[in-house]
Input
Amino acid sequence: MESTLPILKFEETIIETVDKNPVVVIIGETGSGKSTQLSQILHRHGHTKHGTIAVTQPRRVAAVSVARRVAQELGVRLGEEVGYAIRFEDRTSEKTCIKYLTDGCLLRESLSNPELKQYSVIILDEAHERSLNTDILLGLMKRLVKTRSSNLKVLITSATLDGTKVSRFFSTCPVLTVPGKLFPVEVLYSSESSTSFLESSLKTALDIHIREPPGDVLIFMTGQDDIEKMVSKLEEKVLSLEEGSCMDAIILPLHGSLPPEMQVRVFSPAPPNCRRFIVATNIAETSLTVDGVVYVIDSGYVKQRQYNPATGMYSLDIVQISKVQADQRAGRAGRTCPGKCYRLYPSTVYHEDFLDVTIPEIQRSSLAGTVLYLKSLDLPDIDILTFDFLDPPSRESLGDALKQLYLIDAIDESGLITDVGQRMAELPLEPSLSRTLIEANELGCLSQALTVTAMLSAETSLLPTRRKGTEKKRKNPLSDLPDGSGWGDHIQLLQIYEKWDQANYDPQWCIENDLQVRGMKFTKDVRKQLCQLMQKMAEGPLDVQSNRKQKESGQAYRRLRRALCTGYGNQLAERMIHHNGYRTLGYTSQLAQVHPSSVLEMDEDGCLPDYVVYHELITTSRPFMRNVCAVEMSWVMPILKKLEKLNVNKLSGGSGITEENEARVVEPLGSPKNDAVASKAPDD
Ligand code: ADP
Output
């Protein structure tokens, strides 16, 4: 199959252009072979003689999957000549000459090695995704090609990116276009927008199965929940089709949180006389190419995380896709033969409502981690305000990031990175968690903080799900947790891990307790790695084992809560006196409730704690705080004092973050005890 991939016909042109230019942009249709073949082409032509080829991917799944494929094509063992590195997992060795890694991992490597000297070629793959980290890398590469002009080649590849814009960004570097070999795709619009894209997709899928000739069906859903629903509905309906299709059906989910063995199933072709239904997120738009697709069902929606710097709140919205995304989705139907794309919306929606291109992540994310990263780079000429971005972030989100970093002591009042900030940047964690670890180390509860941080780094929640109505009948093995679990989710996460530890990390214990074995094992591994990083950073040896078993858990919990209060200094909330919930402090005050899944408990007066910190503020049906932990007023006050003194303009070195966007300080209400009952939000 490889020999027919379009990119291979351009091998000579690619090599010639790369030889003559430090930066080359390569635009090619999804599936033309950019991710799997470019590195091999350069390897064949000697580019691995003096260094490794790095290929960045915005998604972990893609880094692993493409590395596996390339190792297979070259007939080598994964982790040897061809390897990959994603956060908390490094499968490379001395032998590795082609390394797939997430864009975040390459950024991290550049902290200890700003010139990225081990690499002879850096390929920024999937640049059209415009992930936050790829955008930062674009800026860094621009600088790096100047300092390493003689021995570094940079390639930027994309399926849809505006090549001229990137070329201009890199002093009009050449743009090579690999013509795709797409077959025509007939686009069929619905006459009106459907009220339920799940139902419409289901109906369309069944119609295809009954009426259309062989060919796999790719259905775009918005997220894991929709996918699971769709898979089970399809299974039920396809099996019960009476005068149904004469073909069998296989139904496969495809999303980023699937275990790897499930992900690779989409790469096996359908058996004879069988149609595959692949129900996927936008991961199948460009990241992973599924062969054999002839029919595409496009709901027109995508789930997008959006950050609001004024409130510090995330929303996970189902939004309309852009025209570029819709075209990509349609293109998936024409890779092997002429295909059909069923758009579940009218053509006027496509033409009039859809944005031309997707908004880059840098313009809809919290930038605290990015700003800290840029400040920690040992490069005097790089500054957040002058950094060369392809599309700059808003001044408001830069101001918000500076404020966050200041409140957790990562930068001082003139915006300079502190010692604490420098150490924080060395940890592959979001700033709130790295700050918590550093504080916990000072307070003597590092072991507990490492556990909580690792538990929060797992991809899915590790709190056992509470099933409605089944509590009584079900054995609840966590019911004998020691006192303190009512302090909130962080403490509960810690206690769960400690119980597993006492059960000698037995997988069966996880199963009996409704906990994901894979997630728990991942946590154990992450904990070990974070522990090693902390050890490296500390001057003397750390005592993280002995206090693991310590009896006075009450004291350790209190210290841990205190460390969390420091780390989450920008994520504080105070209980409302006359309201059913909390309001956030430090931002434009936002009313929010404790998420129904939380284990935070009320006291004997029926009141929730006066102050809490939260891991995340997210709007679904309404604003919720997820993963909350009770903290004490005396710990909160110094942070509020700091907030009062805050001058965002000074934090940005006096150079232009507008003052009107400064945080409005919210006066604490004082102790709201014995007042109106604040309760947890009911199940939504
Ligand atoms: P592009 O980067 O241009 O989108 P890729 O290099 O990802 O193209 O894909 C080229 C071909 O390799 C496609 O036919 C795709 O299905 C196949 N492929 C990619 N990854 C895998 C994998 N892990 N297993 C099997 N086939 C794969």
User: Anything to note?
Assistant: The chain has 22 helices and 21 strands. The longest helix spans residues 517-537.
